[in-house]
Amino acid sequence: MIKMFFCSFRRCRWKLRLRMEEEDDVIAVRRAFNETEERLRVIRMRQNLLGTRLALLVSQVDTLTAIMHGKMSKNNSITKSPSQIYL
Question: Which domain of life is it from (predicted)?
Answer without folding.
Answer: Eukaryota
